[in-house]
Amino acid sequence: MVKLIFSIFIFSLIGVITSPEFLMADHILAKSPGADAVLTVEPEPEPEPVVESTVSYTAPVNTAPVNTAPAMANYQVSYYIGSAAEYEATALNLSYNGLYKYNKMIYGHNSYNLLGNLSNRYVGETITITEGGVARQYQVTAVQTYQKTAEGFLNGDAKLMGRIANTALGYDVALFTCAGVSYGNGDASHRLVVFANAQ
């Protein structure tokens, strides 16, 4: 009778221990298959951390040096004018294929392949002028725009063009082209002159 009461007590105790109300969240009961007794009490393993999947993109960094300096302007003389008469005749019939030089003045159309970018020149800039296959560097020292009058004079001065061509007004060289309003016949309302000194 004592054994029967003891067995009932043991089975009741096991039922209380294994009830959901008695078990703690951080433990589990391991039972042997087919056995009625608790064999071990082990801590519940820590849950695996939840890792959120994120996709990120980092643009590659361009480590190559950046050349911010503009390309040096290069002007190449094609034709040399030897006399004032030849200069006057040529000035009325300029070629669109090259630059002319008369004394200290280099002149030509303001087309893309000739002096079209002369308006971009600025004081202090270094430019290259190539003559007879020899390239030489010059520094821009002055930029001037003159109005061309109906008589063909610059700012109404009949001798100014000659002084620029022969003396470059004290500078080593003058680059000379059309500016202002185009007349559509290779002529325009103004003349742009860039003065430079050899370096």
Keywords:
199 residues; Sortase, Chain: A; 2 domains; two-stranded antiparallel ribbon; elongated
Overall description:
The strands form 2 sheets. A 7-stranded mixed β-barrel has the order 3-4-5-8-9-7-6. It has a two-stranded antiparallel ribbon with strand order 1-2. The chain is an alpha/beta fold and 199 residues long. It folds into 2 domains: 42 residues, no CATH class; 125 residues, Sortase, Chain: A, CATH 2.40.260. It contains 3 helices and 9 strands, in the order H-E-E-E-H-E-E-E-E-H-E-E. About 9% of the residues have low confidence.
Query: How many distinct domains?
Result: 2
* Beta-strand segment tally: 9
Strand order of the largest sheet: 3-4-5-8-9-7-6
- Write down the overall mean pLDDT: 79
Alpha-carbon Rg, integer: 47 Å
Order of helices and strands: HEEEHEEEEHEE
Level-1 CATH class name of the largest domain: Mainly Beta
Could you say which overall geometry the principal axes of the C-alpha atoms support?
Answer: elongated
Considering DSSP H and I runs of 4 or more, what fraction of the residues is helical? 10-25%
Distance between the termini: 125 Å
β-strand amount: 25-35%
Query: Could you please say which CATH topology of the largest domain applies here?
Result: Sortase, Chain: A
Q: Describe the largest sheet.
A: 7 strands, mixed, barrel
